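Deliverable D4.2, example record:
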Amino acid sequence: MIVYILETLVFQLVFLLTYDLFLKKETFFQWNRFYLLVTFLLSLVLPWIKLEMLRTSMPQELGGVTVFLTQLDGVVLTPQGPESNFWATFPWYYWVLGVGSIVSALWFGYKLLQILKLKRQGKVVRYPDFVKVTVQRSSLAFSFFRNIFMGAEIQKEKEAKIIAHELVHVKQKHTLDLLFFEMARIVFWFNPLVYVYQARVAELHEFIADAHAVKDNKREHFEMLLSEAFKTRHISFVNQFFNKSLIKKRIVMLQKKRSKAIWQLKYVLLLPLVLGMLVYTSCESESEKKIEELEALPLNEIVVVGYSGDFKTYTLNVKDLDALTAEEESARDELMEKLAENSETGVIVHMMDQQQRSIKMQVENGAIKSISVDKQNQNGVSVPFGEIDEVPVFPGCEDATDKRTCFQEKIQEHIRKHFRYPEEAQAQGIQGRVSLIFTIDTDGTITGIRKRGPHELLENEAVRIIERLPQMQAGKQDGEVVKVPFSIPITFRLQGNVEDVISPQKGGIGVPFAVVEEVPIFPGCEDAADKKACFTEKVQEHIRKHFRYPQVAQEQGIQGRVSVIFTIGEDGAITDIRKRGPHELLENEAVRIIERLPQMQPGKQKGKVVEVPFSIPITFKLAGKTSGTSDATRQAKDYIQVAGGLQHGNGSSYYKGKVTDSESLGLPGVNISIQGTEKGAVTDFDGNFAIAVEKGQVLSFQYKGLPTKTIEVTR
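Output generated by the structure prediction step:
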């Protein structure tokens, strides 16, 4: 909001300076009237316009992070007390703006009542072109819409000339211009340039009326202006005949010779002004953030591009540094080849595995300059909560039949018990989801707390709650005590705000992208040999091209991943866009990008056009922002986990379960297919799914950036 107001002020100032320096003294009154009205509207609209033809790069913030923002068993908390109502969510400056607008609106209403009072008390005579209102004991003269107000004390011989003048205002609807700026004054009461615009337009109205009404006998008109007492009321949206401050200017303008037609070329100045403003609003600012072309690398979750100090950093996430998979070796070799081809300098290649062991290489001009190895964490074996044989035992769960469920319930109970909504966050209207990952160490204590949320106030409160967790019995794997990472999102929500509810994928509607016979064809992929791969590449290219990090989100330090699921309809249009992210600003930007996807050729199954759901994560990452741990740690390689089982009902069997990542966080939009069949499904935003299967069939799980997971249905 603040940035928009400042940009509007600057644009209006430029337009007004151009008017005063080059156009004001010309006699092209109608052109000047058009200029003032149009440039004011442009100043309000231009800050929102972003021309893609002027945007050729994207900010580095589009990097990958390992924090997923949805998970079953999250906790939603709201503050208690009077400060948690709906009105408390508005920042203080919104209140100031609102109160100012209300006062301005009341003042506008008061002035309208004054005009109505004058008309009600005056003598009204109706004519075909106007309504004459004679005001007793007054010498005022002004027009308002079709009403021409005349003071009874004005000499009769002057009435005809004054009415001729005011009739020009009536016929050209000058009142509408002034009312437009009066409305602008209500909304932008704090902007002094709005008042300047209104004054310039009112001045032009008098010049226009004089030019039409005074064809000859100009001297007589001058004498009439100078002889009046100028006892007019100050109402900003009426056209006043006796305006003391304008009389000198009107006399000077009446004496000017008509401007030469050639000087109309001055209005061409508007074109470069507008173009310059469009360039400013469309292009990213180098002073605010670094801009880096990422066309050389695919947008995926294996190689992540970021910055560390003055060095450009490529993070290669792997499962095990001592046993790289073929895919990981290929990604490493491809990255090194591209660095060698581009001869980049000041580059760090960082390889890290799931045990937080790392190899860091400094690359100069395509050659490795130095290597550092850190494998100190290799003895600290950790097993994800979703896979461990014996989960950590929370105090009070020693005799529970299902210790895993009891653990989660006790965690949620602990959070509710110790939760305290920060008062400062309530006052500022801050809310959102904080994703937490921590480790239950081999001695049962809580260590390695990492957090990611929309604001430091919420992050600190979430960490305070987790730090108060009691000591537990450590988890075990194969009879050995191990570290157990666990994650849970804590949602801070102010009362009166309704969190977006994302409905799960409806069964039986559409064919998942992974199993559809003929995938939707993205424009430009018509002749591609692999249309599925081409589709994915084009969507990624579209995201890079249209990506714009919200300015307000940057100022507030908001970052994270937005999971987006959408459907390519039977007509090839994008429908049913659903999103889940850490903040509404990021969600809206992700939706804006997806909404701009072009019309496609729809997908087909068995020769028939079908709807095809598709999902992709869009990650927003601010340069240099940390959350108590390194980027590399946060970007540890994920893999797919599946928990579920075969169930029976109504004479059929189906596999019901949940898909999570390596940190047991639910994965939305995972494509699930049954090998050897055309059946498929897509997980909802919590990773839940259900699909009709038979015992012995093999399920395949595919998610962008993660290795494909397959399981055989046995139970």
